[in-house]
Amino acid sequence: MINFKIDQQKCIKCGSCVADCPARIIAMDGIPYIAPEKEVACYRCQHCFSICPTGAISILGLDPKNSQTLTGALPEADQMELLIKGRRAVRQYKPENLEPELLQRLLNVACYAPSGLNARQVHFTLVDEREKLAKLRDDVMTGLGKLIKGNGLPPGLEFFADFYRAWEEHGVDILFRGAPHFLVVSAPKGIVSPVEDCLIALTTFELFAQTLGVGTVWDGLAKLAINDLLPEFRTRLGIPEDHVVGYAMAFGKPEVTYARTAQHKPAAVHRVA
Ligand SMILES: Cc1cc2nc3c(=O)[nH]c(=O)nc-3n(C[C@H](O)[C@H](O)[C@H](O)COP(=O)(O)O)c2cc1C
After folding, report:
1. Domains of the chain (ranges plus CATH)?
2. Ligand 1, closest atom to CA 221?
3. Measured between alpha carbons, how far is 258 from 237 in angstroms, rounded to an integer?
4. Given this model, what pLDDT does residue 86 score?
5. Given its phi and psi angles, is residue 117 left (phi above 0), alpha (psi -120 to 50 degrees) or beta?
6. Does ligand 1 come within 6 angstroms of the Cβ of 221?
7. Which residues of the chain have pLDDT under 50?
8. Between 113 and which of 24, 122, 144, 201 could a Cys-Cys bridge form, CB atoms 3.0 to 4.6 Å apart?
9. Closest ligand 1 atom to 247 CA
10. Is the C-beta atom of 88 inside 6 A of ligand 1?
11. Range 161-174 burial, b when 16+ CB lie within 10 A, else e
């Protein structure tokens, strides 16, 4: 089922895979093995595969040669620190689509984010062209307009009327911030941590996006509009019915560049005695 195989020529019997398996199902009998009745407990996390120093392990039909090497190839801490501190919510975008290959790369990397019990069920609903987002924006605004006219905005969300007016009267798009692309991340309700998995995937997406010159903005307003105020858009976007929407993000090539980091207060930390 999980196809756990050892290349006996390469295995140095170091026991790393045994010690690192989170399900603790790998045993050593001369070489590492997984008893057939234990296979069902495998997380499919590939820790055994990743930790093996000699590439002796194959699992799930994977060839270690097709992995990227990590040793000595990771970014420096200072670079990562600057990336994290320099990230900003981008609200001015160039009127350009991102290349399809770039979009795919961003999503392929984002889906390496961790998920509870390694569920890996995060689902990306992508608006991949600005023309499509323009149509969606128009239709959401029309929907909002109808809701407003029928006094249908729920208590606490009356401020959506201002966004509608900003669009109708001034062409100012507060809902999608004029971005060319939009992403809704969802996951099946039944998994262990659907919302958390989505948020971690989007956080990963956002950070990686920056390295490729792509700006992002977490889009709570569009999420509210699509998921809560006008849920027919959930169906229109093709978000599976049994999914919970984790969050939404608008993104594209920024029209702005930031010259320096913000200066936030140090972390609020309570050190347990
Ligand atoms: C969960 C969440 C929802 C957000 N929703 C919106 C939004 O709907 N529209 C918007 O312009 N910015 C939104 N933001 C961006 C925040 O306003 C922004 O992150 C914050 O002001 C700090 O600015 P920075 O991201 O540039 O550091 C959201 C951020 C988060 C984390």
Report:
1. 5-66 (3.30.70.20), 79-252 (3.40.109.10)
2. 8
3. 33
4. 97
5. left
6. yes
7. none
8. 201
9. 1
10. yes
11. eebbeebeeeeebb
- Render pLDDT for 216-249 as a digit per residue (tens, 0 to 9): 999 999 999 999 999 999 999 999 999 999 999 9
Q: Tens digits of per-residue pLDDT, 121-158?
A: 999 999 999 999 999 999 999 999 999 999 999 999 99
Instruction: Return the pLDDT at 227.
Output: 96
Tell me the CA–centroid distance for residue 89 and ligand 1, in Å.
6
- Tell the residue nearest (CA) to atom 19 of ligand 1: 89
Q: Which residue has the tokens 């007016």?
A: 165
Atom of ligand 1 nearest to the CA of 91: 11
Ligand 1 atom closest to Cα of residue 222: 8
Model pLDDT, residue 116: 97
Q: What is the 3-state secondary structure (H, E, C) of the chain?
A: CCCCEECCCCCCCCCHHHHHCCCCCEEEECEEEECHHHHHHCCCCCHHHHHCCCCCEECCCCCHHHCCCCCCCCCCHHHHHHHHHHCCECCCECCCCCCHHHHHHHHHHHCCCCCHHHCCCCEEEEECCHHHHHHHHHHHHHHHHHHHHCCCCCCCCCCHHHHHHHHHHHCCCCCCCCCCEEEEEEEECCCCCHHHHHHHHHHHHHHHHHHCCCEEEECHHHHHHHHHHCCHHHHHHCCCCCEEEEEEEEEECECCCCCCCCCCCCCCCCCCC
